[in-house]
Amino acid sequence: MRHVLGFDLGGTKFAFGIVREDGAVVASGRVETLADQGPAQAVRRAIDGARELLASSGFRAESLLGVGIASPGPLDIARGCVDGSPNLPGWTGFPIAGEIGKAFGLPARIDNDANAAAVGEFRFGAGKGFPNMVYVTLSTGIGGGVIVDGRLMRGANGNAAELGHLTLDIKGPPCPCGGRGCFEKYASGTAIAHRARAALAAGHPSSLAALAGGPDKVTSHHVLQGLAAGDTLAKEIWDETIEYLGRGFAVIINTFNPDRIVVGGGVTAAGDTLFGPLRKKALGYAFPRLAAVCTIAPAGLGGDVGVVGAAACAFEAAR
Amino acid sequence: MRHVLGFDLGGTKFAFGIVREDGAVVASGRVETLADQGPAQAVRRAIDGARELLASSGFRAESLLGVGIASPGPLDIARGCVDGSPNLPGWTGFPIAGEIGKAFGLPARIDNDANAAAVGEFRFGAGKGFPNMVYVTLSTGIGGGVIVDGRLMRGANGNAAELGHLTLDIKGPPCPCGGRGCFEKYASGTAIAHRARAALAAGHPSSLAALAGGPDKVTSHHVLQGLAAGDTLAKEIWDETIEYLGRGFAVIINTFNPDRIVVGGGVTAAGDTLFGPLRKKALGYAFPRLAAVCTIAPAGLGGDVGVVGAAACAFEAAR
Questions:
Q1: B27: confidence class by pLDDT, cuts 50, 70, 90
Q2: Domains of chain A (ranges, CATH numbers)
Q3: Could you tell me the sign of the dihedral formed by the alpha carbons of A192, A194, A195, A197, in that order?
Q4: Which of A160, A289, B153, B291 is deepest in the core (most CB within 10 A)?
Q5: pTM score of the predicted model
Protein backbone atom coordinates (compact mmCIF):
# COMPACT_ATOMS: atom_id res chain seq x y z
CA MET A 1 0.00 0.00 0.00
CA ARG A 2 1.09 3.52 -0.78
CA HIS A 3 1.53 6.37 1.70
CA VAL A 4 1.55 10.16 1.75
CA LEU A 5 2.41 12.83 4.29
CA GLY A 6 -0.52 14.92 5.50
CA PHE A 7 -0.17 18.29 7.26
CA ASP A 8 -2.99 20.00 9.12
CA LEU A 9 -2.27 23.68 9.76
CA GLY A 10 -4.50 25.33 12.36
CA GLY A 11 -4.46 28.61 14.26
CA THR A 12 -3.14 26.85 17.37
CA LYS A 13 -1.81 23.43 16.27
CA PHE A 14 0.16 22.19 13.28
CA ALA A 15 -0.39 18.42 13.00
CA PHE A 16 1.12 15.93 10.59
CA GLY A 17 0.95 12.24 9.87
CA ILE A 18 1.89 9.38 7.58
CA VAL A 19 -1.32 8.15 5.97
CA ARG A 20 -1.95 4.92 4.07
CA GLU A 21 -4.14 4.85 0.96
CA ASP A 22 -6.99 3.17 2.87
CA GLY A 23 -7.10 6.23 5.15
CA ALA A 24 -5.29 4.68 8.11
CA VAL A 25 -2.94 6.99 10.00
CA VAL A 26 0.28 5.01 10.42
CA ALA A 27 1.94 7.59 12.65
CA SER A 28 1.30 11.20 13.62
CA GLY A 29 2.60 14.17 15.58
CA ARG A 30 2.03 17.86 16.16
CA VAL A 31 3.71 21.12 17.08
CA GLU A 32 2.35 24.46 18.28
CA THR A 33 1.60 26.88 15.44
CA LEU A 34 2.32 30.04 17.44
CA ALA A 35 0.53 31.79 14.57
CA ASP A 36 1.42 35.33 15.64
CA GLN A 37 5.13 34.53 15.36
CA GLY A 38 4.66 34.12 11.62
CA PRO A 39 4.82 31.23 9.16
CA ALA A 40 8.57 30.57 8.81
CA GLN A 41 9.15 29.23 12.33
CA ALA A 42 5.95 27.15 12.34
CA VAL A 43 6.63 25.55 8.96
CA ARG A 44 10.22 24.85 10.02
CA ARG A 45 9.12 23.11 13.24
CA ALA A 46 6.42 21.10 11.46
CA ILE A 47 8.96 19.94 8.87
CA ASP A 48 11.38 18.92 11.64
CA GLY A 49 8.58 17.08 13.46
CA ALA A 50 7.54 15.22 10.33
CA ARG A 51 11.16 14.31 9.57
CA GLU A 52 11.53 12.76 13.02
CA LEU A 53 8.23 10.94 12.54
CA LEU A 54 9.40 9.43 9.25
CA ALA A 55 12.67 8.38 10.82
CA SER A 56 11.09 6.84 13.92
CA SER A 57 8.51 5.02 11.75
CA GLY A 58 11.11 3.65 9.37
CA PHE A 59 9.88 5.58 6.30
CA ARG A 60 12.08 7.28 3.73
CA ALA A 61 10.64 10.44 2.21
CA GLU A 62 11.32 9.21 -1.34
CA SER A 63 9.07 6.18 -0.79
CA LEU A 64 6.05 8.46 -0.30
CA LEU A 65 3.65 9.55 -3.05
CA GLY A 66 3.41 13.20 -2.07
CA VAL A 67 2.41 15.78 0.51
CA GLY A 68 -1.01 17.26 1.23
CA ILE A 69 -1.48 20.33 3.38
CA ALA A 70 -4.78 21.46 4.86
CA SER A 71 -4.85 25.12 5.84
CA PRO A 72 -7.42 27.74 6.84
CA GLY A 73 -8.55 29.70 3.76
CA PRO A 74 -8.67 31.76 1.69
CA LEU A 75 -5.66 30.36 -0.10
CA ASP A 76 -3.70 31.02 -3.24
CA ILE A 77 -3.67 27.39 -4.35
CA ALA A 78 -1.49 28.03 -7.39
CA ARG A 79 1.24 29.65 -5.29
CA GLY A 80 0.69 27.24 -2.40
CA CYS A 81 0.12 29.89 0.23
CA VAL A 82 -2.38 31.45 2.61
CA ASP A 83 -4.02 34.53 1.15
CA GLY A 84 -5.81 36.69 3.68
CA SER A 85 -7.00 34.13 6.23
CA PRO A 86 -8.50 36.00 9.21
CA ASN A 87 -7.05 33.32 11.53
CA LEU A 88 -3.48 33.54 10.21
CA PRO A 89 -2.67 37.24 10.02
CA GLY A 90 0.75 37.92 8.53
CA TRP A 91 0.95 34.56 6.77
CA THR A 92 -0.26 35.77 3.37
CA GLY A 93 2.18 34.99 0.58
CA PHE A 94 4.50 32.64 2.50
CA PRO A 95 4.99 29.60 0.21
CA ILE A 96 3.93 26.87 2.65
CA ALA A 97 3.49 24.14 0.04
CA GLY A 98 6.73 25.06 -1.69
CA GLU A 99 8.78 24.96 1.53
CA ILE A 100 7.34 21.66 2.74
CA GLY A 101 7.55 20.04 -0.69
CA LYS A 102 11.17 21.12 -1.06
CA ALA A 103 12.07 19.80 2.40
CA PHE A 104 10.92 16.29 1.49
CA GLY A 105 11.64 16.35 -2.23
CA LEU A 106 7.98 15.54 -2.93
CA PRO A 107 5.11 17.17 -4.81
CA ALA A 108 3.06 19.18 -2.28
CA ARG A 109 -0.38 20.75 -2.61
CA ILE A 110 -2.34 22.96 -0.27
CA ASP A 111 -6.11 22.87 0.16
CA ASN A 112 -8.58 24.71 2.32
CA ASP A 113 -8.78 22.72 5.58
CA ALA A 114 -12.50 22.17 5.42
CA ASN A 115 -12.33 21.22 1.73
CA ALA A 116 -9.64 18.68 2.59
CA ALA A 117 -11.73 17.36 5.46
CA ALA A 118 -14.68 16.99 3.10
CA VAL A 119 -12.59 14.84 0.76
CA GLY A 120 -11.34 12.83 3.73
CA GLU A 121 -14.81 12.23 5.16
CA PHE A 122 -16.18 11.41 1.70
CA ARG A 123 -13.44 8.89 0.93
CA PHE A 124 -12.81 7.40 4.37
CA GLY A 125 -15.37 8.69 6.87
CA ALA A 126 -19.02 9.46 7.56
CA GLY A 127 -19.62 10.72 4.02
CA LYS A 128 -18.74 7.43 2.31
CA GLY A 129 -21.50 6.59 -0.17
CA PHE A 130 -23.06 10.08 -0.15
CA PRO A 131 -22.13 11.74 -3.46
CA ASN A 132 -23.71 15.09 -2.53
CA MET A 133 -22.14 15.69 0.83
CA VAL A 134 -21.42 18.84 2.78
CA TYR A 135 -18.80 18.84 5.51
CA VAL A 136 -19.14 21.48 8.22
CA THR A 137 -16.60 22.01 10.96
CA LEU A 138 -17.71 23.72 14.15
CA SER A 139 -14.48 24.80 15.76
CA THR A 140 -12.72 28.08 16.54
CA GLY A 141 -14.46 29.23 13.37
CA ILE A 142 -16.89 27.46 11.03
CA GLY A 143 -15.60 25.95 7.81
CA GLY A 144 -17.16 23.98 5.00
CA GLY A 145 -16.35 21.68 2.12
CA VAL A 146 -18.76 20.45 -0.50
CA ILE A 147 -18.77 17.26 -2.55
CA VAL A 148 -20.95 17.62 -5.66
CA ASP A 149 -21.71 14.40 -7.48
CA GLY A 150 -18.67 12.72 -5.96
CA ARG A 151 -16.18 15.52 -6.62
CA LEU A 152 -14.83 18.32 -4.44
CA MET A 153 -16.28 21.71 -5.38
CA ARG A 154 -13.11 23.79 -5.52
CA GLY A 155 -14.42 26.87 -7.32
CA ALA A 156 -12.51 29.18 -9.61
CA ASN A 157 -9.36 29.35 -7.47
CA GLY A 158 -9.82 26.63 -4.88
CA ASN A 159 -11.59 28.68 -2.23
CA ALA A 160 -15.19 27.53 -2.52
CA ALA A 161 -17.43 26.75 0.46
CA GLU A 162 -16.56 29.43 3.00
CA LEU A 163 -19.69 28.31 4.86
CA GLY A 164 -18.70 30.11 8.06
CA HIS A 165 -19.38 33.28 6.11
CA LEU A 166 -22.94 32.56 5.17
CA THR A 167 -24.90 35.50 6.50
CA LEU A 168 -27.27 35.16 9.43
CA ASP A 169 -27.86 38.88 9.94
CA ILE A 170 -26.72 41.65 7.61
CA LYS A 171 -27.20 44.10 10.49
CA GLY A 172 -24.98 41.96 12.72
CA PRO A 173 -21.39 42.59 13.78
CA PRO A 174 -18.82 43.17 11.02
CA CYS A 175 -16.59 40.21 10.14
CA PRO A 176 -12.97 40.42 8.93
CA CYS A 177 -14.16 38.70 5.71
CA GLY A 178 -15.93 41.88 4.59
CA GLY A 179 -19.44 40.75 5.51
CA ARG A 180 -21.64 41.25 8.53
CA GLY A 181 -23.37 38.86 10.89
CA CYS A 182 -21.56 35.80 9.52
CA PHE A 183 -22.62 32.30 10.62
CA GLU A 184 -19.38 31.72 12.53
CA LYS A 185 -19.92 34.91 14.55
CA TYR A 186 -22.93 33.17 16.14
CA ALA A 187 -22.33 29.45 16.23
CA SER A 188 -18.59 28.69 16.34
CA GLY A 189 -16.86 27.59 19.53
CA THR A 190 -15.46 31.11 19.81
CA ALA A 191 -18.94 32.60 19.48
CA ILE A 192 -20.38 30.30 22.14
CA ALA A 193 -17.62 31.30 24.57
CA HIS A 194 -18.04 34.97 23.65
CA ARG A 195 -21.76 34.98 24.35
CA ALA A 196 -21.29 33.15 27.65
CA ARG A 197 -18.62 35.63 28.79
CA ALA A 198 -20.74 38.60 27.74
CA ALA A 199 -23.70 37.24 29.73
CA LEU A 200 -21.49 36.73 32.79
CA ALA A 201 -20.11 40.26 32.43
CA ALA A 202 -23.70 41.52 32.30
CA GLY A 203 -24.30 39.87 35.65
CA HIS A 204 -26.25 36.74 34.71
CA PRO A 205 -26.10 34.28 37.61
CA SER A 206 -24.30 31.09 36.59
CA SER A 207 -21.85 28.44 37.73
CA LEU A 208 -19.82 28.86 34.52
CA ALA A 209 -17.30 31.32 35.94
CA ALA A 210 -16.54 29.00 38.85
CA LEU A 211 -16.33 26.03 36.48
CA ALA A 212 -13.80 27.81 34.26
CA GLY A 213 -11.78 29.43 37.05
CA GLY A 214 -12.89 32.94 36.09
CA PRO A 215 -15.50 34.58 33.84
CA ASP A 216 -12.89 35.40 31.16
CA LYS A 217 -11.73 31.80 30.95
CA VAL A 218 -15.07 30.35 29.89
CA THR A 219 -14.88 28.30 26.67
CA SER A 220 -17.50 26.38 24.71
CA HIS A 221 -16.45 23.27 26.62
CA HIS A 222 -17.36 24.90 29.93
CA VAL A 223 -20.75 25.80 28.46
CA LEU A 224 -21.24 22.11 27.63
CA GLN A 225 -20.08 21.11 31.12
CA GLY A 226 -22.48 23.65 32.63
CA LEU A 227 -25.28 22.38 30.44
CA ALA A 228 -24.73 18.83 31.71
CA ALA A 229 -24.72 20.15 35.28
CA GLY A 230 -28.06 21.97 34.81
CA ASP A 231 -26.72 25.54 34.67
CA THR A 232 -29.48 27.89 33.45
CA LEU A 233 -27.22 30.30 31.57
CA ALA A 234 -25.44 27.42 29.85
CA LYS A 235 -28.84 26.12 28.75
CA GLU A 236 -29.80 29.53 27.32
CA ILE A 237 -26.51 29.91 25.46
CA TRP A 238 -26.77 26.40 24.08
CA ASP A 239 -30.39 26.80 22.96
CA GLU A 240 -29.42 29.99 21.12
CA THR A 241 -26.50 28.16 19.53
CA ILE A 242 -28.75 25.36 18.30
CA GLU A 243 -31.16 27.96 16.87
CA TYR A 244 -28.31 29.68 14.99
CA LEU A 245 -26.93 26.34 13.81
CA GLY A 246 -30.38 25.24 12.68
CA ARG A 247 -30.82 28.41 10.62
CA GLY A 248 -27.37 28.09 9.07
CA PHE A 249 -27.75 24.39 8.30
CA ALA A 250 -31.15 25.03 6.69
CA VAL A 251 -29.45 27.46 4.31
CA ILE A 252 -26.83 24.80 3.57
CA ILE A 253 -29.59 22.31 2.77
CA ASN A 254 -31.44 24.78 0.51
CA THR A 255 -28.20 25.72 -1.23
CA PHE A 256 -26.62 22.31 -1.90
CA ASN A 257 -29.48 19.81 -1.56
CA PRO A 258 -27.07 17.37 0.11
CA ASP A 259 -27.85 13.75 0.92
CA ARG A 260 -25.65 14.10 3.99
CA ILE A 261 -24.13 16.82 6.13
CA VAL A 262 -21.12 15.57 8.06
CA VAL A 263 -20.29 17.68 11.10
CA GLY A 264 -16.87 17.82 12.70
CA GLY A 265 -14.87 20.13 14.95
CA GLY A 266 -14.55 20.62 18.69
CA VAL A 267 -18.18 21.61 19.27
CA THR A 268 -19.30 18.11 18.18
CA ALA A 269 -17.90 16.84 21.49
CA ALA A 270 -21.44 17.70 22.64
CA GLY A 271 -22.64 14.51 20.90
CA ASP A 272 -26.40 13.93 20.99
CA THR A 273 -26.87 17.16 22.92
CA LEU A 274 -25.89 18.79 19.63
CA PHE A 275 -27.10 16.37 16.98
CA GLY A 276 -30.61 15.66 18.31
CA PRO A 277 -31.87 19.25 18.45
CA LEU A 278 -29.76 20.36 15.46
CA ARG A 279 -31.38 17.78 13.18
CA LYS A 280 -34.83 18.88 14.33
CA LYS A 281 -34.18 22.60 13.78
CA ALA A 282 -32.23 22.37 10.53
CA LEU A 283 -34.61 19.96 8.83
CA GLY A 284 -37.59 21.98 10.09
CA TYR A 285 -36.30 25.27 8.68
CA ALA A 286 -35.29 23.92 5.26
CA PHE A 287 -37.57 23.24 2.28
CA PRO A 288 -39.37 19.98 3.18
CA ARG A 289 -38.48 18.29 -0.11
CA LEU A 290 -34.78 18.98 0.47
CA ALA A 291 -34.92 18.17 4.19
CA ALA A 292 -36.50 14.81 3.36
CA VAL A 293 -33.36 13.46 1.67
CA CYS A 294 -30.76 14.95 4.01
CA THR A 295 -29.17 13.22 6.98
CA ILE A 296 -26.91 14.94 9.49
CA ALA A 297 -24.14 12.85 11.03
CA PRO A 298 -21.02 13.29 13.14
CA ALA A 299 -17.67 13.15 11.38
CA GLY A 300 -16.07 9.72 11.27
CA LEU A 301 -12.40 10.64 11.26
CA GLY A 302 -12.27 12.35 14.66
CA GLY A 303 -9.14 14.30 15.51
CA ASP A 304 -7.39 12.86 12.47
CA VAL A 305 -9.70 14.55 9.98
CA GLY A 306 -7.26 17.32 9.09
CA VAL A 307 -4.30 15.05 8.48
CA VAL A 308 -6.39 12.39 6.71
CA GLY A 309 -8.18 15.03 4.62
CA ALA A 310 -4.89 16.57 3.54
CA ALA A 311 -3.66 13.08 2.71
CA ALA A 312 -6.84 12.31 0.73
CA CYS A 313 -6.17 15.40 -1.40
CA ALA A 314 -2.57 14.28 -1.94
CA PHE A 315 -3.79 10.84 -3.07
CA GLU A 316 -6.26 12.48 -5.47
CA ALA A 317 -3.53 14.70 -6.89
CA ALA A 318 -1.26 11.68 -7.38
CA ARG A 319 -3.80 9.72 -9.41
CA MET B 1 -29.42 20.26 -36.83
CA ARG B 2 -31.55 18.69 -34.15
CA HIS B 3 -34.37 20.36 -32.21
CA VAL B 4 -36.21 20.00 -28.92
CA LEU B 5 -39.30 21.54 -27.37
CA GLY B 6 -38.65 23.77 -24.36
CA PHE B 7 -41.33 24.79 -21.84
CA ASP B 8 -40.90 27.59 -19.32
CA LEU B 9 -43.48 27.44 -16.53
CA GLY B 10 -43.83 30.60 -14.44
CA GLY B 11 -46.28 31.89 -11.88
CA THR B 12 -47.89 34.17 -14.49
CA LYS B 13 -46.73 32.92 -17.93
CA PHE B 14 -46.22 29.50 -19.48
CA ALA B 15 -43.90 29.92 -22.48
CA PHE B 16 -42.73 27.34 -24.98
CA GLY B 17 -40.52 27.16 -28.04
CA ILE B 18 -38.80 25.02 -30.63
CA VAL B 19 -35.06 25.25 -29.96
CA ARG B 20 -32.19 24.23 -32.23
CA GLU B 21 -29.06 22.55 -30.82
CA ASP B 22 -27.01 25.74 -31.24
CA GLY B 23 -29.42 27.48 -28.86
CA ALA B 24 -31.43 29.37 -31.49
CA VAL B 25 -35.17 29.65 -30.84
CA VAL B 26 -36.83 28.71 -34.12
CA ALA B 27 -40.34 29.61 -32.97
CA SER B 28 -42.01 30.38 -29.65
CA GLY B 29 -45.32 31.16 -27.98
CA ARG B 30 -46.90 31.57 -24.57
CA VAL B 31 -50.15 31.23 -22.63
CA GLU B 32 -51.26 32.60 -19.26
CA THR B 33 -50.53 30.23 -16.36
CA LEU B 34 -53.50 31.29 -14.22
CA ALA B 35 -51.66 29.47 -11.44
CA ASP B 36 -54.50 29.62 -8.92
CA GLN B 37 -56.76 27.68 -11.28
CA GLY B 38 -54.48 24.69 -10.88
CA PRO B 39 -52.10 22.76 -13.11
CA ALA B 40 -54.43 20.76 -15.38
CA GLN B 41 -55.87 23.71 -17.33
CA ALA B 42 -52.49 25.42 -17.68
CA VAL B 43 -50.67 22.32 -18.89
CA ARG B 44 -53.51 21.60 -21.33
CA ARG B 45 -53.34 25.12 -22.84
CA ALA B 46 -49.55 25.06 -23.06
CA ILE B 47 -49.70 21.70 -24.87
CA ASP B 48 -52.32 23.08 -27.30
CA GLY B 49 -50.19 26.17 -27.88
CA ALA B 50 -47.06 24.13 -28.55
CA ARG B 51 -48.99 21.85 -30.94
CA GLU B 52 -50.13 24.86 -32.96
CA LEU B 53 -46.57 26.18 -32.94
CA LEU B 54 -45.21 22.90 -34.31
CA ALA B 55 -47.89 22.83 -37.00
CA SER B 56 -47.40 26.44 -38.06
CA SER B 57 -43.60 25.97 -38.12
CA GLY B 58 -43.79 22.79 -40.17
CA PHE B 59 -42.39 20.49 -37.46
CA ARG B 60 -43.64 17.02 -36.61
CA ALA B 61 -43.35 16.05 -32.94
CA GLU B 62 -41.63 12.76 -33.82
CA SER B 63 -38.77 14.63 -35.51
CA LEU B 64 -37.82 16.24 -32.18
CA LEU B 65 -35.27 14.87 -29.71
CA GLY B 66 -37.28 15.46 -26.55
CA VAL B 67 -38.96 17.93 -24.22
CA GLY B 68 -37.42 20.02 -21.46
CA ILE B 69 -39.54 21.82 -18.88
CA ALA B 70 -38.29 24.57 -16.59
CA SER B 71 -40.43 25.08 -13.49
CA PRO B 72 -40.22 26.90 -10.16
CA GLY B 73 -38.87 24.55 -7.46
CA PRO B 74 -38.81 22.58 -5.30
CA LEU B 75 -39.58 19.73 -7.66
CA ASP B 76 -39.89 15.99 -7.53
CA ILE B 77 -37.66 15.39 -10.53
CA ALA B 78 -38.18 11.64 -10.54
CA ARG B 79 -41.98 12.00 -10.70
CA GLY B 80 -41.77 15.05 -12.98
CA CYS B 81 -43.82 17.33 -10.79
CA VAL B 82 -43.79 20.44 -8.64
CA ASP B 83 -43.34 19.64 -4.95
CA GLY B 84 -44.20 22.46 -2.62
CA SER B 85 -43.27 25.51 -4.70
CA PRO B 86 -44.39 28.62 -2.79
CA ASN B 87 -45.27 30.25 -6.14
CA LEU B 88 -47.45 27.39 -7.41
CA PRO B 89 -49.73 26.47 -4.51
CA GLY B 90 -51.93 23.47 -5.29
CA TRP B 91 -49.70 22.17 -8.07
CA THR B 92 -47.79 19.65 -5.94
CA GLY B 93 -47.96 16.14 -7.33
CA PHE B 94 -49.46 16.94 -10.76
CA PRO B 95 -47.32 15.03 -13.31
CA ILE B 96 -46.36 17.95 -15.56
CA ALA B 97 -43.50 16.16 -17.35
CA GLY B 98 -45.58 13.01 -17.78
CA GLU B 99 -48.55 14.86 -19.30
CA ILE B 100 -46.47 16.94 -21.70
CA GLY B 101 -44.26 14.01 -22.71
CA LYS B 102 -47.34 11.85 -23.38
CA ALA B 103 -48.97 14.59 -25.46
CA PHE B 104 -46.02 14.70 -27.86
CA GLY B 105 -44.85 11.10 -27.59
CA LEU B 106 -41.41 12.30 -26.48
CA PRO B 107 -39.16 11.85 -23.45
CA ALA B 108 -39.76 14.82 -21.13
CA ARG B 109 -37.77 16.01 -18.13
CA ILE B 110 -38.45 18.76 -15.65
CA ASP B 111 -35.78 20.94 -14.03
CA ASN B 112 -35.81 23.82 -11.61
CA ASP B 113 -36.23 26.97 -13.74
CA ALA B 114 -33.10 28.65 -12.46
CA ASN B 115 -31.07 25.45 -12.82
CA ALA B 116 -32.28 25.17 -16.41
CA ALA B 117 -31.41 28.82 -17.04
CA ALA B 118 -27.93 28.20 -15.62
CA VAL B 119 -27.38 25.37 -18.12
CA GLY B 120 -28.75 27.59 -20.92
CA GLU B 121 -26.52 30.54 -20.04
CA PHE B 122 -23.51 28.25 -19.59
CA ARG B 123 -23.99 26.53 -22.96
CA PHE B 124 -25.36 29.39 -25.05
CA GLY B 125 -25.21 32.68 -23.14
CA ALA B 126 -23.17 34.94 -20.86
CA GLY B 127 -21.69 32.00 -18.97
CA LYS B 128 -19.98 30.42 -21.97
CA GLY B 129 -16.37 29.64 -21.07
CA PHE B 130 -16.87 30.05 -17.29
CA PRO B 131 -16.81 26.55 -15.77
CA ASN B 132 -17.66 27.76 -12.26
CA MET B 133 -20.70 29.89 -12.96
CA VAL B 134 -23.64 30.93 -10.84
CA TYR B 135 -26.86 32.06 -12.46
CA VAL B 136 -29.11 34.31 -10.40
CA THR B 137 -32.53 35.44 -11.53
CA LEU B 138 -34.01 38.58 -9.98
CA SER B 139 -37.67 38.34 -10.80
CA THR B 140 -40.92 37.82 -8.86
CA GLY B 141 -38.68 35.77 -6.57
CA ILE B 142 -34.95 35.08 -6.64
CA GLY B 143 -33.71 31.80 -8.09
CA GLY B 144 -30.30 30.30 -8.65
CA GLY B 145 -28.47 27.65 -10.63
CA VAL B 146 -24.86 26.63 -10.17
CA ILE B 147 -22.39 25.17 -12.65
CA VAL B 148 -19.48 23.45 -10.86
CA ASP B 149 -16.53 22.57 -13.04
CA GLY B 150 -18.71 22.61 -16.16
CA ARG B 151 -21.61 20.57 -14.78
CA LEU B 152 -24.95 21.54 -13.26
CA MET B 153 -25.05 21.07 -9.50
CA ARG B 154 -28.35 19.22 -9.12
CA GLY B 155 -27.99 17.96 -5.56
CA ALA B 156 -29.45 14.80 -4.08
CA ASN B 157 -32.87 15.16 -5.72
CA GLY B 158 -32.45 17.93 -8.29
CA ASN B 159 -33.32 20.85 -6.05
CA ALA B 160 -29.96 22.45 -5.33
CA ALA B 161 -29.29 26.18 -5.43
CA GLU B 162 -32.39 27.70 -3.88
CA LEU B 163 -30.39 30.93 -3.68
CA GLY B 164 -33.48 33.08 -3.06
CA HIS B 165 -33.57 31.37 0.31
CA LEU B 166 -30.13 32.32 1.50
CA THR B 167 -30.69 34.12 4.77
CA LEU B 168 -30.11 37.84 5.13
CA ASP B 169 -31.69 38.17 8.57
CA ILE B 170 -32.79 35.31 10.82
CA LYS B 171 -34.94 37.79 12.74
CA GLY B 172 -36.61 38.91 9.50
CA PRO B 173 -40.09 38.05 8.24
CA PRO B 174 -40.99 34.36 7.95
CA CYS B 175 -40.84 32.84 4.47
CA PRO B 176 -43.07 30.04 3.16
CA CYS B 177 -39.88 27.97 2.69
CA GLY B 178 -39.56 27.50 6.46
CA GLY B 179 -36.84 30.09 6.96
CA ARG B 180 -36.82 33.75 7.99
CA GLY B 181 -35.49 36.87 6.32
CA CYS B 182 -34.73 35.13 3.03
CA PHE B 183 -32.78 36.97 0.29
CA GLU B 184 -35.81 37.14 -2.01
CA LYS B 185 -37.88 38.82 0.72
CA TYR B 186 -35.54 41.83 0.38
CA ALA B 187 -34.26 42.01 -3.17
CA SER B 188 -36.73 40.39 -5.58
CA GLY B 189 -38.99 42.48 -7.82
CA THR B 190 -41.84 41.67 -5.44
CA ALA B 191 -39.80 42.89 -2.47
CA ILE B 192 -38.87 46.14 -4.21
CA ALA B 193 -42.54 46.84 -4.98
CA HIS B 194 -43.55 45.85 -1.46
CA ARG B 195 -41.11 48.23 0.18
CA ALA B 196 -42.14 51.08 -2.12
CA ARG B 197 -45.83 50.52 -1.38
CA ALA B 198 -45.18 50.32 2.36
CA ALA B 199 -43.25 53.62 2.26
CA LEU B 200 -46.07 55.28 0.33
CA ALA B 201 -48.62 53.94 2.81
CA ALA B 202 -46.50 55.39 5.60
CA GLY B 203 -46.85 58.80 3.93
CA HIS B 204 -43.44 59.23 2.24
CA PRO B 205 -43.74 61.95 -0.41
CA SER B 206 -43.08 60.52 -3.87
CA SER B 207 -44.16 60.62 -7.49
CA LEU B 208 -44.37 56.80 -7.58
CA ALA B 209 -48.10 56.57 -6.82
CA ALA B 210 -48.91 59.00 -9.65
CA LEU B 211 -46.52 57.14 -11.97
CA ALA B 212 -48.23 53.82 -11.25
CA GLY B 213 -51.82 55.11 -11.21
CA GLY B 214 -52.23 54.43 -7.48
CA PRO B 215 -50.00 53.53 -4.50
CA ASP B 216 -51.10 49.88 -4.60
CA LYS B 217 -50.14 49.53 -8.26
CA VAL B 218 -46.47 50.34 -7.80
CA THR B 219 -44.11 47.65 -9.17
CA SER B 220 -40.33 47.40 -9.35
CA HIS B 221 -40.53 48.89 -12.84
CA HIS B 222 -42.18 52.04 -11.49
CA VAL B 223 -39.40 52.29 -8.92
CA LEU B 224 -36.88 52.20 -11.77
CA GLN B 225 -38.89 54.80 -13.71
CA GLY B 226 -39.04 56.99 -10.62
CA LEU B 227 -35.31 56.54 -10.09
CA ALA B 228 -34.60 57.76 -13.63
CA ALA B 229 -36.91 60.74 -13.02
CA GLY B 230 -35.09 61.73 -9.83
CA ASP B 231 -37.72 60.58 -7.30
CA THR B 232 -36.22 60.59 -3.78
CA LEU B 233 -38.17 57.63 -2.45
CA ALA B 234 -37.32 55.57 -5.53
CA LYS B 235 -33.65 56.39 -4.93
CA GLU B 236 -33.90 55.25 -1.29
CA ILE B 237 -35.64 52.01 -2.19
CA TRP B 238 -33.14 51.29 -4.95
CA ASP B 239 -30.11 52.00 -2.75
CA GLU B 240 -31.51 49.62 -0.13
CA THR B 241 -32.06 47.01 -2.84
CA ILE B 242 -28.48 47.31 -4.06
CA GLU B 243 -27.25 46.93 -0.47
CA TYR B 244 -29.32 43.75 0.00
CA LEU B 245 -28.21 42.40 -3.38
CA GLY B 246 -24.58 43.18 -2.58
CA ARG B 247 -24.82 41.26 0.70
CA GLY B 248 -26.51 38.30 -0.95
CA PHE B 249 -24.10 38.19 -3.89
CA ALA B 250 -21.12 38.34 -1.50
CA VAL B 251 -22.45 35.20 0.19
CA ILE B 252 -22.80 33.57 -3.24
CA ILE B 253 -19.18 34.46 -4.02
CA ASN B 254 -17.92 33.11 -0.65
CA THR B 255 -19.98 29.95 -1.09
CA PHE B 256 -19.21 28.96 -4.69
CA ASN B 257 -16.04 30.87 -5.59
CA PRO B 258 -17.45 31.44 -9.10
CA ASP B 259 -15.54 32.90 -12.04
CA ARG B 260 -18.77 34.48 -13.21
CA ILE B 261 -22.19 35.35 -11.85
CA VAL B 262 -24.76 35.73 -14.63
CA VAL B 263 -27.79 37.77 -13.60
CA GLY B 264 -31.16 37.53 -15.34
CA GLY B 265 -34.80 38.30 -14.56
CA GLY B 266 -37.00 41.37 -14.87
CA VAL B 267 -35.03 43.49 -12.38
CA THR B 268 -32.02 43.44 -14.75
CA ALA B 269 -34.00 45.79 -17.03
CA ALA B 270 -32.31 48.39 -14.79
CA GLY B 271 -29.09 47.77 -16.75
CA ASP B 272 -26.04 49.70 -15.54
CA THR B 273 -28.12 51.29 -12.78
CA LEU B 274 -28.10 47.76 -11.33
CA PHE B 275 -24.81 46.28 -12.48
CA GLY B 276 -22.49 49.19 -11.67
CA PRO B 277 -23.29 49.54 -7.97
CA LEU B 278 -24.02 45.82 -7.53
CA ARG B 279 -20.52 44.87 -8.70
CA LYS B 280 -18.99 47.39 -6.32
CA LYS B 281 -21.00 46.23 -3.29
CA ALA B 282 -20.83 42.48 -3.89
CA LEU B 283 -17.11 42.38 -4.64
CA GLY B 284 -16.45 44.69 -1.68
CA TYR B 285 -18.33 42.52 0.80
CA ALA B 286 -16.84 39.17 -0.34
CA PHE B 287 -13.43 37.74 0.58
CA PRO B 288 -10.94 39.72 -1.58
CA ARG B 289 -9.28 36.59 -2.97
CA LEU B 290 -12.64 35.26 -4.17
CA ALA B 291 -13.88 38.66 -5.37
CA ALA B 292 -10.71 39.05 -7.45
CA VAL B 293 -11.62 36.21 -9.82
CA CYS B 294 -15.37 36.85 -10.08
CA THR B 295 -17.10 38.88 -12.78
CA ILE B 296 -20.80 39.81 -12.69
CA ALA B 297 -22.57 40.05 -16.04
CA PRO B 298 -26.10 40.37 -17.40
CA ALA B 299 -27.72 37.26 -18.83
CA GLY B 300 -27.22 36.76 -22.55
CA LEU B 301 -30.40 34.90 -23.44
CA GLY B 302 -32.90 37.62 -22.52
CA GLY B 303 -36.56 36.68 -22.41
CA ASP B 304 -35.79 33.32 -24.02
CA VAL B 305 -33.68 32.08 -21.10
CA GLY B 306 -36.43 29.86 -19.68
CA VAL B 307 -37.28 28.15 -22.94
CA VAL B 308 -33.62 27.87 -24.03
CA GLY B 309 -32.57 26.64 -20.59
CA ALA B 310 -35.26 23.96 -20.60
CA ALA B 311 -34.13 23.01 -24.10
CA ALA B 312 -30.47 22.88 -23.00
CA CYS B 313 -31.46 20.37 -20.29
CA ALA B 314 -33.37 18.31 -22.87
CA PHE B 315 -30.30 18.26 -25.14
CA GLU B 316 -28.10 17.16 -22.21
CA ALA B 317 -30.54 14.39 -21.31
CA ALA B 318 -30.57 13.19 -24.94
CA ARG B 319 -26.80 12.82 -25.18
A1: very high
A2: 3-119+303-318 (3.30.420.40), 129-299 (3.30.420.40)
A3: positive
A4: A160
A5: 0.90
